[in-house]
Design goal:
The complex is a heterodimer. Chain A is built from 10 helices and 7 strands. By secondary structure, chain A is α/β, with parallel strands linked by helices. Chain B has 13 helices and 9 strands. Chain B is globular. The chains are: A alpha/beta, B alpha/beta.
Chain lengths: 289, 289
């Protein structure tokens, strides 16, 4: 092995991943302006989990905070990956879409309000099944309503990743921010292995998993806008940067012809190496090692 | 056309595909449009047609199995990369064409097994494809196209989010062959560490867990349950009744708000989605405090 690399910079950084959902949300706001809404003291818990002998949580694993980011009004919605795998239940889902709708109303009244989504989630909470799925549909709809007025920035940092229906939420966002540790995909590797067999996907092969859905790959193939370090200050700066940049001319999920023709050009008789899809990236970007 | 590849299946999947007939979508598409084919250049798995109802043109869309499809994991009625981008393209085509004129209604006939679970799909960013289709439906709805989803068979998970769940109005046949859920039963039981009988028992008290469409109707998401005499091979009266209900739903959608608030303000939601309503009210109270 080579000499251990000692980086003072690396040691000085404050990990974003290691923060709780609440602290992650808080650290994005200008000078402590973040104020939590419908927080744990409001005690709106899942009505469905206790019926299944599962202990609910007073915030249902979703933190909504409103304040100022980069001098503009913003709402941050943070999912806690540690509670039920960051899954979307009735309450967390309703917090999510209601906060987006209120931001949309403010924009309609002329108060520019941006949204930042901290997505550490496996998707729909299966213990609340149909209400989780319905909530995700509402979240997607609310993001699309809001992004006409102000950018919706999604950030996925931790190893839980962003999966299931919530990957569609990231997909319709204005900007997608990821770390190397994060993953973004519709189906988790275990589900693919279970449904389509080991020869299709070996979920125990972690390097395979990250090579396909990991942040570096998503950035290199143009499905994420920026790759950041697990550094709270760098992530906050990136969020401010996209808020200042505003709404993109065209959202990624609106570019149907572009992506449809790319899919049409793929040789489906075999699996592809992830590098083959680097050509999808639209603007000149530094390839990320 | 390439040879159909050996389907990747295991015991479990075979049982599941038995439950999913995969024929209802095509049957109803044919019954309502008199047609049975994809539009030029589209994969055979997406049926699309414009039909005149009185003076008005309506676009109908349906995803069906195609055993010769290019993608091995999307041949049995799953929504994969091609299906999602084709839906998106066929919806965007309508919104573009109707930009300066009366907005054509769009009817999604839904019988989807699920999203496609495959390695090619994840590598190619199926989350973005699904997002693009959702986006197209939402954008069409927000610009005033009335959208109705007619659920004639399965409407499961990411497949439903991609095709149908963004409609203004959801209609479903009142029939045991209709299944609306976040995940197929056996997979859901496994993920939540339960047996199928345990899941069935819980579903008696936990409404959102139920696989029965009559329980789904209690959640307040559905506009109407339709009673037909033969859901698997509709009679002339069945077809007439369903068209009348679809037109009724289109007319209803045209005079109501374009967002999804009807799903939370409905009679059913007032009893079943109390927690969602409480969250919404609390956030509204605290938003400007």
């Amino acid at each position: 092995m080579s000499e251990p690399i000692f980086s003072r910079e690396y040691l000085k950084r404050r990990s974003f991943i290691e923060l709780s959902a609440r602290d992650r949300a808080k650290c994005l706001f200008d000078s402590q302006t973040g104020r939590e809404l419908a927080g744990p003291f409001d005690r709106i818990e899942s009505p469905w989990l206790p019926l299944q002998n599962i202990v609910p949580q007073a915030d249902d694993g979703c933190v909504v905070m409103k304040g100022i980011i980069g001098g503009q009004q913003a709402v941050v919605i943070a999912i806690a990956g540690a509670f039920q795998g960051g899954s979307i239940g009735e309450v967390s889902g309703a917090k999510f879409s209601s906060a987006l709708d209120l931001a949309c109303l403010d924009n309609e009244k002329g108060v520019r309000t941006n949204a930042v989504l901290l997505l550490e989630t496996g998707g729909v909470r299966l213990q609340e099944a149909n209400l989780g799925l319905a909530a995700v549909a509402e979240i997607i709809s609310s993001i699309i309503s809001l992004r006409k007025f102000a950018p919706v920035i999604s950030v996925t940092a931790g190893t839980v990743g962003c999966f299931g229906g919530m990957a569609l939420a990231a997909g319709v966002s204005s900007y997608v921010v990821m770390t190397r540790e994060a993953r973004l995909g519709l189906n988790g590797p275990e589900v693919i292995e279970q449904e389509s067999g080991l020869e299709e996907f070996d979920a125990s092969d972690r390097s395979l998993v990250w090579s396909i859905t990991g942040g570096r790959q998503r950035y290199n193939q143009g499905l994420a806008d920026v790759l950041v370090d697990d550094d709270a200050e760098q992530i906050a700066q990136t969020v401010r940067h996209f808020i200042a940049r505003g709404i993109p001319t065209v959202h990624r999920s609106e570019q149907v012809d572009r992506y449809r023709s790319r899919v049409a050009a793929l040789d489906t008789s075999r699996q592809w190496s992830p590098e083959e899809l680097y050509a999808w990236a639209n603007h000149k970007r530094k390839e990320q090692p | 056309m390439t040879e159909p590849a050996q389907p990747v299946t295991n015991e479990r999947q075979r049982r599941q595909s038995d439950e999913f007939s995969g024929t209802r979508g095509r049957t109803w598409f044919k019954a309502l449009t008199g047609r049975d084919s994809a539009m030029p250049g589209d994969p055979q798995s997406v049926l699309a047609a414009d039909v005149f109802v009185g003076q008005k043109q309506v676009r109908l869309l349906c995803v069906v199995p195609d055993l010769n499809g290019r993608f091995p994991c999307a041949r049995h009625g799953q929504v994969g990369l091609e299906e999602a981008y084709t839906l998106a393209a066929r919806i965007r085509e309508v919104t573009e064409a109707d930009r300066e004129r009366e907005k054509r209604p769009i009817v999604a006939i839904v019988d989807v097994k699920s999203q496609a679970y495959g390695r090619r799909e994840e590598t190619g960013g199926i989350h973005l494809a699904a997002a693009a289709a959702s986006d197209a439906y939402v954008s069409a709805r927000l610009t005033g196209h009335p959208i109705v989803a007619l659920i004639v068979g399965h409407a499961v998970s990411g497949g439903f989010l991609t095709h149908g769940y963004q409609a203004n109005r959801l209609l479903a046949l009142d029939d045991d062959g209709v299944l609306i859920h976040a995940m197929h039963k056996e997979a859901a039981a496994r993920v939540t560490r339960r047996t199928v009988p345990q899941l069935d028992e819980l579903a008696q008290t936990v409404t959102p867990l139920s696989y029965n469409v009559r329980d789904y109707a209690k959640l307040g998401l559905l506009h109407k349950l339709l009673h037909v005499s033969d859901p698997g091979s509709p009679t002339a009266e069945d077809i007439e009744l369903v068209w009348a209900e679809v037109i009724g739903a289109i007319q209803d959608a045209m005079v109501r708000p374009r967002d999804l608030r009807n799903r939370i303000e409905s009679e059913g939601a007032r009893t079943t989605r109390k927690a969602s309503r409480l969250v919404r009210a609390r956030l509204m109270e605290q938003w400007n405090r």
